[in-house]
Write a structure and sequence with these properties.
globular, 11% helix, Tumour Suppressor Smad4, five-stranded mixed β-sheet, mainly beta
Length: 295
């Protein structure tokens, strides 16, 4: 333990050496981009529905005679159907309904199969939908690019920026490269982990198990003593730069952010593993968002 943190003390100070004004400006820009991302076409504020398919034919539209019902001015009585058979989900548009993929009119489309890597997004008026798979469940994620929530959403509250919560960390290799993660649906899956991030705050050592989703950053799901009263009840998310060749990186808790479930009931968020619920109150990053403000 002593040896590990002697290494931290020898870490190049350039990882933390930012002028306060430069760091403050970078954090303001980070928050601005966060709002833009949440309001983007693939963001979370425009998510208006999550409809789970049953095997067989699933008729989709605004009429109550459909298996999947969504009432909206752009949704016809019958828009079409999702047909889930033999491991494949096929979309068939109702005759005369102008559904599109990539601005091209379509009558049918394969949304899921053993060889389909990413489900295409279907457009109808201001509505967009695509398929998501959560273990054995297959659902339709529905967005409205003109939802009134987009105009009402302007900001996410957050704590004052504090460089104290920008800390050195060392990645320790795990005994197993699998981390069990449970989502809000109650499903538990084994996901890839490169190890645990070990760091200090106020002289106390903590650790967080990280996930590797590819790219240049690690993904961390964590909780702390601010959850429920000040921050989102189940915890928050964070991205951390992948460590350098010596295993060192920097965790910036000022960039802790709310999960999608903080903004919509139609998300399927992962929950922090028990070992990632920290005992102290991390009064930094995003605070609790009140989704009733969007109604």
């Amino acid at each position: 333990m002593i040896y590990r943190f002697l290494l931290l003390l020898l870490m190049p100070m350039s990882l933390l050496a930012q002028k306060p004004s430069t760091y403050q400006d970078s954090m303001v820009a980070w928050h601005q981009k966060r709002i833009q991302d949440l309001k983007a076409p693939n963001g979370w504020v425009n998510l208006v529905g999550l409809l789970w398919l049953s095997p067989g034919k699933n008729k989709f539209g605004s009429a109550f005679s459909n298996e999947l019902i969504f009432q909206h001015k752009d949704m016809p009585n019958q828009a079409g159907s999702f047909n889930w058979e033999n491991g494949t989900v096929n979309w068939v548009s109702q005759k005369g309904i102008a559904t599109k993929i990539n601005d091209s009119l379509i009558q049918e489309a394969i949304l899921f199969s053993a060889t389909e890597k990413q489900a295409p997004q279907i457009a109808l008026g201001s509505l967009r939908w695509n398929l998501i798979k959560r273990e054995e469940k297959i659902g339709i994620r529905l967005r409205d690019l003109n939802t009134p929530a987009l105009k009402k959403f302007t900001s996410v509250p957050y704590y004052p920026i504090n460089v104290k919560y920008r800390v050195d960390a060392v990645l320790e290799k795990p005994a197993s490269n699998k981390l069990m993660i449970t989502n809000v649906l109650g499903q538990t899956t084994a996901q890839e982990t490169p190890g645990r991030l070990v760091f200090q705050i106020d002289g106390v050592t903590y650790q967080l198990d990280a996930l590797d989703e590819g790219g240049e950053e690690l993904f961390v799901i964590f909780g702390d003593a601010t959850n429920e009263k000040e921050t989102y009840p189940t915890g928050r998310f964070m991205y951390v730069p992948k460590p350098d060749a010596t295993g060192h990186t920097v965790i910036d808790f000022n960039k802790a952010f709310n999960p999608p479930c903080a903004f919509t009931v139609h998300a399927t968020c992962p929950l922090p593993p028990k070992q990632n619920i920290l005992p102290m109150a991390l009064k930094t990053g995003e605070k609790k968002f009140h989704p009733e403000l969007l109604k």
